[in-house]
Structure formats: C-alpha cells, structure tokens
Amino acid sequence: MTKAPEPRRAWVYPLEVKGKFQRIHRATGLVLQLILVGLPWLVVKGYPAVQFDLASRRAYLFGAIFTPQDTVFLVLMGLLAAFSLFLFTALFGRLWCGFACPQTVYLEEWVRPIETFIEGKRGARIARDKGPWTAEKAARKAAKWTAFAALAGFVAMSFMSWFSGARPLWTGTASVGSYAVTAFLAGVMFADFAWFREQFCNYLCPYARFQGALTDPQSLVVSYQVELGEPRRGEGACIDCKKCVTVCPQGIDIREGFQLECITCGRCIDACDDVLGKKGQEGLIRYTPLVPGPRVRPRTVAYAAILLALLTAFTAMMANRHDLVADISRAPGTLFNIDADGWTRNTYLMRVTNNSHEETSFEVSIEGLPSDAKVDVSPIKLGPSATATVPVIVRLSPGEAAARTLPFAVRVASDHDHVLLTATFKTSEG
Ligand code: SF4
Ligand code: SF4
Question: What is the dihedral of CA 419, 420, 426, 429, to 10 degrees?
Fold first, then answer.
C-alpha cells in the first residue's frame, strides 16, 4: 500500500485591510509595545519599575521589593493573572490572541509591514515566490531576513530586560547567561517571524488548546452570519468575493463555521464591512456570541467572584506588608544547654529581610520571659532587599527556669517598623 503524501503547508499571504478592528489593533499594539519596551527602563524609588530578577531571587514592582519570603504575593499575582484571563476569555473569546498576544502584535505591526515594504504587495510576493530564484529575489529575501533578525534581537532584548534589567542588558554589563538566553530567544523569534508564523497558534500555543474549556456558546467569537449570507450570490447575501479569506492571517475561511484556528483578529469583519459597505449593505461577519444568550452566566459570575476575592486579599496583604520580614526557629541540635554558671541556654536561628529601600539597623529584644533573661545577638544591619540569618541566644538564670516550656516573644525593630515573633524557651525544670 502506498503512503499518502504529507500535506504541505500552504504559505499564507494575507491581503492588507483597513477598518475599525485594524485601528483598534494598532492602538492596543502601540500601548502594549510601549509597556514591553518602556517599563523596565522606568525607575521607582531607585529600582526598576518592573524586574523579575531570577538570579538574585528578587522581584521589583513599582517600588515594592519582593523576596523569596514574599512567595505568597507572587502566587497571588499569578492567580490574579490566570483568573483575569479566564474571565476575559469567557466574556470576549480569544480577544487576547487577536489584539494582545505578542505573536500577533509583532506579526501584524512589524513583520508583515516589513515584508510588504521589501517584497511588495501580496500579488507581487506570490508571483515572485512561485518563480525561480534570481539575484533580485535573493537580495530581497536577504534584506527581509536581516530586518527580521534585527527585529527579533530587539524584541528578545526588550523581553529579557524584564528579567535581567534594561540598563545592565543594554549596556553590556549583564551576565553571560542573560545574553545566552537572549540569543536563544532571538533565534526562536527569528524562526517565528521568517517561517513559523500562524503555525505557532495552530500547533504550539497552549492557550489556544485550552480555550475550548474556557468558552461557552455565549462567549463572543468572530462568526459568519449564515442566515444572512446564504445562499451565496442571492439578494443581499454573500457575493463570494473571498476577501474575508484572502485577508485572514490564519488562512481559513470563516464562512465554513467557527474554527479553532481563528484568532479573533477581526480582519475578515473589516474586509466584509468594506466590500458590502460599498454596496450599502452591512457586513456578514460579526463579533457576536455563537448562540444568543445572557452575557452574565454562572461561569462569568464565578470567575468574577474569585477575582474579586483574590484582589481583596492581595490589596489587604499589600496594605499590611512590612518593610521588615523575619522568622525564627530553634537551632538544630539540643533543645537547651546548661552553661558552666548554671544558666539555661536556648539557641535559635532568626532570618531577617529588609524590604525597605534604605540600609537599616535592627534591634532585637525579648518579651514575656522573667526579667533577668538575657538575649545575645550580633548587630543586624542590612542593605535594601537584603536577607541575613543570625543566631539568637537566650539565657535564663537557674532560679527563674520554673517550667519545662516558657512561651515568649522576640521583638525585631527598626526605626519605623517592628515585628513580634513567637518562640518557646525549653528548660530541664518543671
Ligand atoms: S477568520 Fe477572521 S477573525 Fe479569524 S483569524 Fe481569520 S481573519 Fe482573523
Ligand atoms: S467578504 Fe463578505 S461578501 Fe465577500 S466572501 Fe467574505 S463573507 Fe462573502
């Protein structure tokens, strides 16, 4: 039995289109690119406005410094982002894909315009690609790929600025690892810009794969109005101009019904509005629910309620967040020691983090033990966002060690903040 030939990829040459959705795309794309490129350059209270410094396990967000002790905040931020996406998808379908995904933004705002500028409009590109290799064709391809390589390098550097810091990265002072990751990302982006393109959405993107679980028939999708458009070429129906197909960057015909490949970019809507608008008719492709129904559904209410709860928890925790974070635990080993002078000694390990923007000294004292109890701890002075672990030794005279376990508190204080840590003092008495 002969094996069927593998289907070859049909290269997509989307026709340029103008219209309402393209104007929205351009505006949101501009804002998002400014955020991607600009935010890591902004400085708030002496630190990057946004940086996820994985190497030193610090995150800087608009003046707040998050350390590994703040993992709960980062988890909450991740959950907030996830549930925002769930709610957004349930309400608006794949609007993210068509308008906010970096893949779409860079393809539509840079890659295709560069391609058109260097290789000409759709018809010229199709004809040249079908023809033999000539010096002119090679020169145009080389120029295009060079421009794509430069664009990929710029986008990779901008993306990595969120992790390695814009200033170190762009001034050549970041780590070798940062540049290695940047080079890898630039290579992947170049392959995407030059060749992979819509296949990323169709085969690789995880969001595209699980969107089916996040939407329902009342979620907004781009859909062809069959009852208005069919039968084709009838009075007021689809004139079968195929413009909605030729503008589609995913290479699909939306008239065949809802398809997973559709990224909700709205180009086919603009195309049909343009074609039929000239005949005084309304377009046949709309951004509308597949099945009419209420916008507020149990699913959207549940997502909104969870989002509100997460937001409330995050805001409350941020409002009560201390510049000083500390915890204490008993040092590994014996519970207590009896010193030569008869005093009972307990040893603890205390971890202190300075979340403020200044170098800060911390005083340590104890509360709740008999008055002759002594605490011995080295002076603690920490730079901004620094953490130190210090031994804390607490001693109690023989006459005062009246019970096996004495609860007490360790007070750690700076000039403007303090925390109370609970601990227990162990003795042989009782
Ligand atoms: S079908 Fe329309 S909305 Fe969907 S990807 Fe194609 S052009 Fe964009
Ligand atoms: S653009 Fe509109 S009229 Fe033209 S083929 Fe598509 S649906 Fe039909």
Answer: 150
